[in-house]
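Morning run. Coffee first, then this:
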Amino acid sequence: MRDTRTAQPASQHIARTQAGRLQNAGASTGLVDSGARMSVRGVSKSYTTDRGVVKQVLASVSFDVAPEEFVAIVGPSGAGKTTLLRALAGLMPPTSGEVYFDGSPVTAPPERLALVFQDYSRSLMPWMTVEKNVTLPLRRKKLAKEVQKRLSSEALAAVGLGDIGTHYPWQLSGGMQQRVAIARAIAYQPDALLMDEPFASVDAQTRSDLEDLILALKKQYRMTIVVVTHDIDEAVYMSDRVIVLSGSPTSVRQVVDVALGTHRDQLVTKSLPEFVELRNTVLTAVRRPVGDPTA
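And here it is:
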């Protein structure tokens, strides 16, 4: 049954666009929201090509992500979504601007953050068992082996793979491999989880199952989640807010609040008029040409 406490007409929420939302967050003044899990302030990123040409990918991107919030980032192909995610993860320093995690500047991967990559097959070590793959990042915490084993077992059980710890990744289907990658992330017990196109390589049914799995894990572990995706339906279905990026050089074009209740169902939620309206709003924003005066 749908949560009716927040089931208001989508039109009341989608009018909150970039200007209003970012001004409330303090982005226009460069101030950091002390209550935010993650803050991005005026982040720009440029590259110099082999021919000496400077190419700007990100142009003064600013937004906040609250604790336990689910935010989806969408935009045209080549808009720099993965570049932005790497900056959030501390894997790529911005050319200018700042990224903050719990109010502290990000200069390296934050201790309480985990990342799930798009290419799960490359992120798993084929010569290690599933259990050892899951416990791999736990070695950084210097936990006792019995603690690592317990966290691995709990994480694998949470993703529905409690009985395959002794298997190897190459023995598993693509969907199961991605579940192992997710289990490895949550075994680390992060406060925030970043996901880069996590379901792009799986079939439609597996994608739906994994979407629901992530929503359940978010509630169970009370994590903040930021996901980059090309799938507009996925972005609206899973998130509390959708951040729409413009084409390159990338800036925040629009922020869309998603008020579809706390309980999401693949059939019921995606059949709601509110869902359809939100999907159309996000898709229209993504397709809007760069330089369009309505952007």
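Confidence is low (pLDDT under 50) at residues 1-29. Good start to the day.
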